[in-house]
Structures are given as C-alpha cells and as structure tokens.
Amino acid sequence: MSNVQATHYSVIVVGGGQAGLSVSHFLQRANIDHLVLEKHTLTHTWRTQRWDTFCLVTPNWQCALPGHPYSGADPHGFMKKDEIIAYLDGFIGKVNAPVLEDAAVTRVRRGADGRYIVASTRGEFTADRIVVASGGYHTPIVPRMAERLPVQIAQVQSSDYRNADALPPGAVLVVGSGQSGAQIAEDLHLAGRKVHLAVGEAPRCARFYRGRDVVDWLADMRYYDMPVTDHPLREGVRDNTNHYVTGRDGGRDIDLRRFALEGMELFGRLEDFRDGKLRFAPNLRANLDDADDTYNRINASIDGFIAKHGMDAPPAARYEPLWQPDGERIELDLEASGIGSVVWCIGFTPDFGWLDAPVFNGRGHPAHLRGVTAVPGLYFIGLPWLHTWGSGRFSGVARDAQYVVDAICAERANAPDRVSIACA
Q: Domains in the chain, ordered, with CATH?
C-alpha cells in the first residue's frame, strides 16, 4: 500500500513479519479496516538476518501460515534460506495486506478518548486497537567485556554473520551454543575454520529417533498443542533457550562432543577478558551433560509413547558421550590462540520502549493471556510461547492470529459506539 489516505483505522498492526501478516489475513476475513506498519520491508528479518547456509530446523510440513500451507515436494525436508523467502513471498501475495513500509513506529500512546495515537516516521495515525507484531528479539546482546577486546579482533553478532569467508583470517571464537551459536559453530567448522566455542546451558535434542523425525513424534504426542498454562514451567518456559539441532543436509543431530573430537575447542561459559586472556566458567562438563540429559529425556518420552500405544518402531537407544573434557580450561590467551574474530550468539532483548502502556514486567516483557493484555484494545502476537511452542513460528502463529482477531471482534461487539464495521 503506497498511498495511505486514511489516518484513522479500527486496527493498526505494528510489524510486517509472518505474525503481522497473519493478523491481517484474519482481519480481512472479519472485514475490519486496518493498516500494517512495517519498519523496513515485509518479512525483513528473514531476508537480512540469516547466514548463507541457514535452513529451517523444523520440517517443512510445519510451515502452516494461514491460507498458505507448505505445498512443496519435500514435506519432511528443511527449506533453505532462498526457499523460505520464496514461501514468504507467496504468503505476502496471498494476504495482500494494507501495509505501509519504511514506517518505523516511534511512539504509541492512548489518548483521553480511548483511541491510540501512533507516531511513525511516515506520519501520525490513530486506531481503536493496536496489535504489536514486532516480535521479541530486538536488541542483540553483547556483553560490556566486548569493549575491552583488541581493536584488531573483528566482532559480529549472530544476526550479522553470513559465512566463514566473510570473517578475517584466523581462528574464530563463537560465544553461545543455542540454536544459532551451535549452527554457526558447525558452519565455521565445516568450512575448515578453527573454532573455539564457549558452551552455554542450551539443551539439545535428536533430529531422528526410532525411525522418524523427533518433531513428528512430538506432534503425535500433542506437545505442540500444549498451552503455556499447562507447561510444567508455566510462563518460565518463555525464558528457555531453544534446543540445538539442524536441518542442514537433510537434518542431523548437532553433537558438540563430536566436534571436539574433530578439533573444535570447547570451553564453559565466557565470563571475562582481562590481561590478554579470555576467562571461562568451569562448567563445560556440566553444560554438556545437561544437554545430553535433555536429549535422552525427550527420547525416553517418545519410548513411553510408543510403548503405551503398542507401536512398531526401531529399538530404543540411549546417547552415550563420545568425548569428555579433560579437566576444565578456564583461561585462553587471546593472542596465542590466533583468534581473529568473535561471533556473539547470546540472544536478544526485547525493546518496546516506543509503547506507552502499563503492561510490562521488570524485564521488559508484556503481561498477557494468549496475546490479550489488561489494557483495552492492546494485543501482542508472535512472541515465544505466547500460547504454545509454535507461537513464534510458522507452525503456530495462525492459531494465535485467529484468537487475537476473535478477541478484537468480541471487544468491538461490546463497544458498539466505537465500531464502524461489524465482524463477519
């Protein structure tokens, strides 16, 4: 939408990724006028913040955006970066959302009349309701110790990493072993680079177990339908680091112990840099063991499911460590190690500073129930575990978007003085 005429809308959606576009899909079905404001271009993050060999870590069949399920020839494969973009382009074309791109929202506040006032770099708008669909990964986390590293050390954050050749010569320190860190460490390792990996507390899971993708098993076990309110950790699960695994080359486990046998240097959590030395916590063994415990625990739950239903499947197996660290190395001389670059893979923090609403906790996360906040007319979507595991993914965002739009319809029905178009 290039020529925006109206300044007031029933709904303004902030963010034009898969979550915002999914909301637009259901708003159009409900015949509700709206505008999507996108800071850059539609699905910008997928196009600009992924490395060259990036691929999905969940099978293609889980790509189920509203009205746009995966229809390719490899439902149990893992789309690569270009294929993901093509899939999203198809979704963009189907939704045909009323969108204003290059419109960074700078402030949203609620006026005395109950309407929301939206200031953006493309002008000011008002709306009866706001759907925040900008995600929860905004500001890259880089520790202050990074400022003390020598200037000749190249430093990039995971969202800026592209490939091994884009980094200067020398060994590479990858900090963090979550989903991105483990895959980037693997990418560098396969490219023949010497990798030092600071291993965090991320769990891992098998790619395939007892003849099937683990995702297929967990889907049958209804794990992906479990609401956050039923999870043993409740809302605490939103803080969990994603399990590391990969869809690369048809999908496989990521086993850091195997990498160690092949020459990758593993350390515990990076804690400091001083006197020319990197300092690590003595927790490498514990972190590896905990990740393997999660791996085996998930597989054991699959064993139980198979046994309960009397299913025919290949025999059960338990992962046994291929390698154990010989003590805990807590120091590494930066110059002697030959490290020429550091890739920070320790996540992001949310930044909703532009939203003036009393819905945030002390960590900057919004309080909500399935995306519905206590503030009238304010909704969120696309956040990790907003409702289920798939809430921030292609697999679950459609269900969340439908729920939020249904909530908007219900609110409109209870506020007839502010309704201009009835929900279908």
A: 8-138+350-418 (3.50.50.60), 141-344 (3.50.50.60)
